[in-house]
Design a protein that fits this description.
The complex is a heterodimer. Chain A is mainly alpha-helical. Chain A has helices spanning 5-34, 48-78, and strands spanning 42-43, 46-47. Chain A has one domain (5-78). Chain B has a two-stranded antiparallel ribbon. Classes of the chains: A mainly alpha, B mainly alpha.
């Protein structure tokens, strides 16, 4: 009833991608908002920080979730812990 | 701890799931076509002379009947179907259902209005209510799906062992869902009233009927399929007037891509209006009126005495001159003068508040616009704190997390979060565009019009509700100045069809969309509360041998009771609906998020620690709200609203979760270190949850 090394490797890879994506999320949300006044140069008509809050961050959020799902589904297959569909 | 063995293997029958998905796609495509056909028919009927009230009735009756119909077709007493829709909701449809579940009346009607009124600061809601899904995807959804039970307290009970964590979970789930559902039912009442002209209380109960037929008969299964239908209506209703308005203003039907241009124009108009002498004149008048009222407020009895004496002196002069007109004016002035000190205080406080309208326009696109650096720092801190609370709250609200139990597999749960956010994103990235386009209309078209030539929509909405829109010629020059317009946020969405010059049928469509948004959220929330009581409290804690039929029956009964209770509370029109909604987020964030994530990512977290952590998180959040939010403070502590609150680090009560979330984490970690590690059985449960399909070596 022990986890194998492969299992542990899968989990640490999961933690790694989770941390990376979380860092992206943090930068897009909090770092950009923190410097919102400094980052207000014109970006296709919008002040850049306004654009990020209204659209840019949202697009990146969708990308983060999409990328995580794709990455993990592949990782499942690679490490043989997938649910065996498709 | 037998849940792992009695959970059916997550491997679905691929063929049947694919067939099911394509069948669903057909049904909903047909449904969308049918709905559009219905709208077109009504538009033709309107052109032929159907009265507006009838269009409103048609939308109300048809949509509620439609939701009820889906509810009746999906009726079930099977536990799996009732609690988790049979766990075969395809990712994309679960995404749509979550979208409808998520987007409440506040998102649909309030969001664009908040952005209109607050500009950049309003973006905290846009980012907060979308970015939270990153946390759902990365920390919770796949693991909860693998765990595969029915509710969130289920997970707490299994992971932490014993009744205490489950019980605290039940209390938090009910606390935050109930606050939230009251706000939704209130929204339902408002929209029903507007759509059909019935009385507010009756409106609440009509809407309630629509909610109940659906969730009462078919539980999660009916709620899911209704929510998909509601999502389709609400997104069509939101986009139609917005796209039309964009075409009218810019000639391009993709408002989200081009409103930067309009924002620049709005910014130019803001600068121009701020320097306009007529605007300055109006603002000066407001400033003077406010200053006068403030002086009167300093000593109310004395002000009343002198005020009355002056008026009576006027009357005496008029009488001695025998001037009938002057006597009439003087008598009216005396009649209007406040009767007692309470009335005087209320009237003068209202005048004093006009100071807000004396302020120059804050730039829409400017971040943290404020008078000096210190105020800007406070605005920035609160902006970030609010984002964090809304995001973490998103990842902790049980009615949303519960939805990820309904997908066929872990893989589908992951995909389903992507779809959820995508469908939510469609509305959220449109709302800022709508706010800017409407602002352009107001600043460019409405300001500078003669009061004798106001557009029809202005007159209509002034008549409907002066708190939504009211114009008064303050400086008596016959021309509308920006400072003379008082606007309520909700009008931005509700009046867009008329502003864009669309037929009334589109207004009906928008109201139906708002109703769909409020009903779908209320459905999900009521189900969460009923399940927490029937499944977690009754079945898991009181009578573990209760047969399935009795549990489902009990859940249905409780649903009815809770719904009526919520409706009764909503009928009292509690103050500050937006605060209620935000409070639910802070409470859920502080209560659930630390215990759920640590439960999955840290094996050492113990049951006692989790119980204490949840209680501490919610406790401090609630304490901060109760001592700083004027309305709650008055209710709990009897402190009058006018007394300024002692804020911690200038954080507004709306973001109280900012204290509860870290405290929850700290308490769980510290207490876990000094208590006995969880049993091997629980450690195995955690390992199982971490792998979609764990074949042990």
């Amino acid at each position: 009833m022990k986890l194998t090394e492969r299992h542990k490797e899968y989990w640490s890879k999961n933690l790694r991608i989770t941390s990376i994506l979380l860092a992206v999320w943090f930068v897009v949300t909090f770092v950009v908002s923190w410097f919102a006044r400094e980052l207000s140069f014109n970006f296709f008509g919008w002040p850049f920080s306004f654009y990020m809050g209204a659209q840019g961050a949202l697009v990146i959020y969708v990308w983060i979730i999409w990328y995580y799902a794709r990455y993990m589904n592949r990782l499942d297959m690679e490490y043989g812990v997938d649910e065996g569909e498709d | 701890m037998a849940m792992i063995t009695d959970t059916p293997p997550p491997v679905g029958n691929t063929q049947s799931i694919k067939g099911f998905t394509s069948q669903l796609t057909k049904v909903y495509a047909f449904y969308t076509g049918g709905f559009l056909g219905f709208v077109i028919l009504l538009a033709i009927a309107e052109a032929m002379g159907l009265p507006k009230a009838w269009i409103g009735y048609c939308f109300l009756v048809l949509t509620v009947l439609l939701y009820a119909g889906i509810g009746i077709m999906s009726r079930t007493s099977d536990a799996d179907e009732y609690y988790v829709a049979g766990r075969r909701v395809p990712a994309i449809f679960n995404g749509m259902a979550t979208g409808a579940d998520w987007m409440s009346a506040a998102s649909f009607i309030g969001m664009a209005g908040t952005l209109y009124l607050t500009g950049y600061s309003g973006l905290a809601f846009i980012m907060g209510w979308t970015g939270g899904y990153c946390l759902v995807a990365l920390f919770l959804a796949p693991y909860l799906r693998k765990f595969g039970q029915f509710t969130i307290p289920d997970f707490l009970g299994a992971r932490y062992g014993g009744h205490a964590p489950r019980f605290v979970g039940i209390v938090i789930a009910i606390l935050c869902s109930f606050t939230y559902v009251v706000a939704q039912i209130y929204g339902v009442g408002l929209i029903t009233t507007r759509l059909s002209g019935v009385d507010f209380t009756l409106g609440i109960f009509v809407g309630l009927g629509g909610i109940l037929v659906c969730s009462f008969l078919g539980g999660m299964r009916a709620v899911t399929w209704t929510q998909v239908a509601q999502y389709i209506i609400l997104i069509i209703a939101y986009m139609t007037p917005l796209i039309w308005l964009s075409v009218k203003q810019t000639g391009i039907p993709i408002p989200q891509a081009v409103y930067g241009m309009q924002l620049q124009k709005v910014t130019e108009l803001e600068i121009k209006l701020n320097a306009d002498p007529k605007e300055l004149e109006v603002r000066g008048i407001f400033k003077a009126r406010s200053d006068d009222a403030k002086a009167l407020l300093k000593d109310i009895p004395a002000s009343m005495a002198t005020g009355k004496a002056a008026l009576e002196a006027n009357l005496a002069t008029a009488k001695s001159n025998n001037d009938a007109a002057a006597i009439k004016t003087a008598e009216d002035a005396i009649a209007k003068f406040p009767k007692d000190e309470v009335a005087a205080k209320a009237a003068w406080s209202k005048e004093a508040a006009l100071a807000a309208r004396a302020a120059p326009i804050a730039a829409h696109g400017e971040a943290f616009a404020a008078k000096d650096e210190a105020a800007r720092t406070i605005a920035k801190k609160n902006f970030l704190a609010l984002i964090l609370c809304l995001m973490v709250g998103t990842a902790a609200l049980p009615h949303i997390l519960m939805r990820y139990y309904t997908t066929p597999s872990v893989k589908d749960a992951r995909a389903s979060v992507t779809w959820s956010l995508f469908f939510i994103f469609l509305l959220y990235f449109s709302a800022p565009a709508l706010a800017v386009l409407v602002k352009y209309v107001v600043y460019h078209d409405l300001v500078g019009t003669a009061f004798t030539a106001l557009p029809a929509w202005v007159a209509n909405w002034q008549a409907v509700d002066p708190s939504l829109l009211s114009l008064a010629d303050i400086n008596a020059d016959g021309i509308v100045q920006r400072a003379e317009i008082a606007i309520g946020g909700d009008i931005v969405v509700l009046a867009t069809p008329e502003i864009a010059g669309l037929p009334y049928v589109v207004s009906g469509l928008v109201a139906a969309g708002g109703l769909a948004a409020a009903l779908s959220t209320a459905d999900g929330l009521l189900l969460t509360i009923a399940n927490a009581l029937s499944h977690d409290l009754y079945y898991k804690m009181i009578d573990p041998n209760a047969p399935v039929a009795r549990r489902v029956m009990l859940s249905k009964t409780l649903l009815l009771v809770v719904a009526v209770l919520a409706a009764l509370v909503a009928a009292q029109k509690p103050a500050d609906i937006l605060f209620l909604v935000s409070a639910a987020f802070s409470l859920a964030a502080a209560g659930f998020f630390p215990a759920l994530t640590l439960g999955i990512f840290w094996k050492r977290a113990t049951g006692i620690a989790a119980t204490l952590g949840m209680a501490a998180g919610v406790g401090i959040t609630f304490y901060y709200m109760a001592t700083t939010q004027p309305w709650l403070r008055e209710m709990f502590l009897g402190i009058p609203r006018a007394v300024p609150a002692e804020l911690w680090w200038d954080i507004n009560p709306i973001s109280a979760g900012i204290f509860g979330i870290p405290l929850g984490f700290v308490v769980i970690v510290l207490v876990s270190m000094v208590t006995k590690a969880p049993s091997e059985e629980i450690q195995h449960l955690i390992e199982d949850v971490r792998y979609p399909n764990l074949k042990r070596a």
